[in-house]
Amino acid sequence: MELQENAALILIDQQKGILHPRLGPRNNPEAELRMLELLAFWRHTARPVIHVHHLSRSPDSVFWPGQSGVEVQPRFEPVAGEWLVQKQVPDAFSGTRLEEDLRKAGIGQVVIVGVATHNSVESTARTAGNLGFDTWVAEDACFTFDKADYFGNARSASEVHAMSLGNLHGEYATVVSVKRILEAG
Question: Of the candidates 157, 93, 100, which has an alpha carbon nearest to the alpha carbon of residue 120?
Answer without folding.
Answer: 93
